[in-house]
Each structure stands twice: as structure tokens, then as C-alpha cells.
Amino acid sequence: MTTPDIIFYTAKVRHGLPVCSAEIAFQEAKADVTRYWIDVANKPEWFAARVNPVGQVPALVYGSPKSDPENPSPGSAKIAESVVLLEFVADLYPDSGLLPKDPVERARVRFFIDAVSTKVFPPFFAFLYRGESPDAFIAAAAEIQELLPPTAQFAVGDHFTIADAALAPFLGRSELYFRNDFGRYGEGAGPPVYEELFRSERFERLQKYFANISSRESFKNSFDTEYLIARAKTRFARH
Ligand SMILES: N[C@@H](CCC(=O)N[C@@H](CS)C(=O)NCC(=O)O)C(=O)O
């Protein structure tokens, strides 16, 4: 067996692949990677010591052809943080178009990712995990919608880029969780957010965009609806 150059450490799920922007990027690039699943609830000690000191996935080891994933060679590069991984995958596979060639379009991709990271994630987590008002999340979604080109399929034109990979898992989870009222907010608070974002005329553009990204094989392969529902039922159980 030959050991590939990239070992991708990702969250262990019951079956299928985890919802993860880097996973989507690897699939879009048709990259040959070795996946190593980490149980985030019960992380092995070697993971922080040898791969990511912060102890989080996703992370990867690069340039260590003969490494055992549990003991990667000290000379290999250890890379973490989703957004950094996205850029790294795009750099490794320039022909994938995950980052356009044109500098202006590259800047647009990065601007979009920055907006997703700084504007969408904090209020998404605040609503989902802390039950804070969803208003800031809906406002952030409106800002993201404004960034979408009027007719093109994806965030920056008609080619799928890392901008789409960055947002896809979060839109997918929003749709699924809020439709099913999964979250640490009061009972019944999820479906109105789902209706607003995924049904209302106000968010028609975002809905069309979500249809485009969620129909990609890369999304479908990594978005295991049945598993996510089963896990959310325990994770977000109301007592
Ligand atoms: N900022 C990090 C966040 C990664 C993250 O939250 N990872 C979770 C799993 S999706 C994790 O490893 N949790 C285990 C822990 O924090 O101990 C990124 O974007 O990559």
C-alpha cells in the first residue's frame, strides 16, 4: 500500500463523511487523501501532541509520504483551521478552479470567506448553541445574499470556489436544524428562521444559491442527513 502525501484528520461520524468545508474542497479537487477519523468527544492524546496543538479537526499533515497517521514524521507540515485548509487545497490543486486565476476574482472569493467567518458564524452559533435572538443571524444572511452575483450559480461566478465550500456546511445545517427545530433555543424558535431564510421571497436569491451548492456531489457526499438528524436529537434534546 502506498501512503499518500496528505493525511486529512477529520471528525468521526457514525457513517459517511462529516459536514466540513475542507472535505467539500478536497472532493471538488478530486484529491487523493488519506482520511483519519478523530472522535472529537474522545480525542487520542497523540493528536494534539503530534498534529494540532489546539486539538481540533479539521487538520492535515502534508509531505510525509511514509508516515503513520498516528505518528507523522516530524519534518512534515502540520496545517489546521478550516479557512487555511481551504486556501491550501486550492493552492495544491490550481486546476480545480477552487480559487480563480484572476486577482480581482480571488479577492472576491476571500472577501466572501471573510464575511462568512466574521459575520455569519458568530450569530449562527449564538442562536444555535446559546439560544440568543436569531435576528443578527438573519441580518448576516441578508448581507451574504447581497454579495451574491445576481444570476451566476456560485458566490463568485459560475465556477464553484472555496467561497462556496466555506458557506455550504453552514447553510446546510441551518436548513436542516431550523426546519426540524434543533437548537438550544426555546421550543418553536427554529422553524420561523427556516421559513424566513429558506421559504420567504426576501431570501429567494439565497435559496437559489443554496439549491446550486447543495446539489453538488461534494455536498451530498458529506452531508449525511440521517446521521445529522439522529445526532441532533440527542445533542439538542429539550428536557
Ligand atoms: N476554528 C476551527 C474550528 C474547528 C472546530 O470547531 N472543530 C471541532 C469539530 S467540528 C473540534 O475539533 N472540536 C473538538 C475540540 O474543540 O476539542 C476551524 O475553523 O477549523
Automatic annotation (TrEMBL):
SUPFAM superfamilies in alphabetical order: GST C-terminal domain-like, Thioredoxin-like
Domain of life, source organism: Eukaryota
Ranges in coiled-coil conformation: none
Pfam families named among the record's database cross-references: GST_C_2, GST_N_3
Matches recorded under InterPro entries: Glutathione-S-Trfase_C-like, Glutathione-S-Trfase_C_sf, Glutathione_S-Trfase, Glutathione_S-Trfase_N, GST_Omega/HSP26, Thioredoxin-like_sf
Domain spans labelled GST N-terminal: 4-97
Domain GST C-terminal: 102-236
GO cellular component terms, A-Z: cytoplasm
Name this protein carries in UniProt: Glutathione S-transferase
Organism lineage: Eukaryota, Fungi, Dikarya, Basidiomycota, Agaricomycotina
